[in-house]
């Protein structure tokens, strides 16, 4: 297991450091390097996205600057478990589907509703980002940060920073997603924060099906557990999505994709419920 930074530094402090990190050595109009060797992009790279890969033991996580997240765990029996599939084909250099992980910020109601992805704000509904920043960190704090700033009419403004990383826990490898949102405007802002992980069902190994055959249960508003036996084996695969928040109230947790983002695959780009 690779060494990790010491605990005790709050997410807010780490996020604000990333937001304020200067480009000490500029390479191009896209960005350059920070004072500590951090890779900083001030726009999404065109063509082939930038990639950060983290391997720990039998688990590998890949993060791309366009928001594609891939999480693979190899079992001792040799089976590859694709917990999350990336949404970009690096060979063909094109999108292969909607992102397997996403975060959205929603403000307003009815006809005034505005929504934007905090990972790739190009996917938005009336809420374009004023600026974006993507930061890649190496060991010992290997992670990819997605940052953005939004301004609305009436003095409303928000900055966000989302951190993706892989950690090793006592239960095994886990993918972490940390979200920092700060109101920088002159008025109080009421908003909704949506998060999503699109997981394959275990039955996909044998029947090319998705989550339909698995047994999913929203245990609490913060917790979702999905379990199913791997076909033709005694392996029981457990998938757990656990959340915690500070200064936010959970609305609901769901293992049902349809009730979360809408009725068709196309709506996974933006939440509709």
Describe this structure as you would to a colleague.
By secondary structure, the protein is mainly beta. It folds into two domains: 1-185, no CATH class; 199-273, no CATH class. Helices cover 7% and strands 44% of the residues. The chain has three helices and 20 strands. The protein has helices at residues 11-20, 204-207, 257-261; strands at residues 25-28, 31-33, 39-41, 51-56, 59-64, 69-74, 80-84, 88-89, 94-95, 101-107, 114-117, 124-125, 131-137, 143-152, 156-169, 172-183, 191-197, 215-220, 223-229, 236-242. It has a seven-stranded antiparallel beta sheet with strand order 1-2-3-13-14-15-16, with helices on one face. Strands 4-5-6-7 form a four-stranded antiparallel beta sheet, with no helix packed on it. Strand 4 (51-56) and strand 5 (59-64) form a beta hairpin. The longest helix has 10 residues, at 11-20. The radius of gyration is 19 Å and the shape is globular. It starts with 10 loop residues before the first helix and ends in a 12-residue tail after the last helix. Mean pLDDT is 82; it is low at 1-6 and 257-266.
Mean pLDDT: 82
What is the oligomeric state here? single chain
Total helical elements: 3
Using the CA coordinates, give the radius of gyration: 19 Å
| Biggest sheet: strand arrangement | 1-2-3-13-14-15-16
SSE topology string: HEEEEEEEEEEEEEEEEEHEEEH
How many distinct domains?
A: 2
Q: In total, how many beta strands?
A: 20
Strand content: 35-45%
